[in-house]
Amino acid sequence: MWMTDFLPALLGGLLLGTASVLLFLLNGRIAGISGIFGGVVTLASQWGWRALFLVGLVAGGLVYQLAGGNVNIEQVASPLGLVIAGLLVGVGTTIGSGCTSGHGICGNSRFSPRSIFSTVTFMAAGIAIVAILRLVTGV
User: For the chain, what percent of residues have pLDDT higher than 90?
Assistant: First the structure.
């Protein structure tokens, strides 16, 4: 019974890993979502495959929901808070030369020292923020 709780995450991880490997093998590109998104926004060369990759990410969730999966999205911040958070993520990915997917999935699998350091850093920062927020809010 407990396995069914983790099955969607396991399948999602397998699909994400497969997509990352295929993108690298067939296109020679790393599946860093911030870089892919940035290429679409700035209309960089080869923006077509980037747009399709992003559409596939959204379509995957929609297909899962249509197949009977439970997609529960809870907005926990105001629209302004979400915009500010998105801008901060954009600044962070620029400073860090990549995002969590680029470093955490693709970079670590290539044993990139920069990606390993980045992953440890953002995981530690995330854990610290959650601990602080739980301490302050009591949740």
Answer: 9
pLDDT tens track for 60-83:
888 888 888 777 777 777 889 888
CB-CB contact of 65 with 48 (8 Å): no
Secondary structure element (H or E) that encloses residue 85, with its range: helix 79-95
For 80-115, write each residue's pLDDT tens digit.
Answer: 988 898 888 888 887 878 787 788 888 888 888 988
CA–CA distances in Å: residue 22 to residues 19, 46, 53, 77, 110: 5, 17, 12, 35, 15
Spell out the domain ranges in the chain.
1-73, 75-139
Residue 32: CB partners within 8 Å, gap ≥ 6? 98, 99, 101, 102, 103, 106
Distance CA 40, CA 49 (A): 9
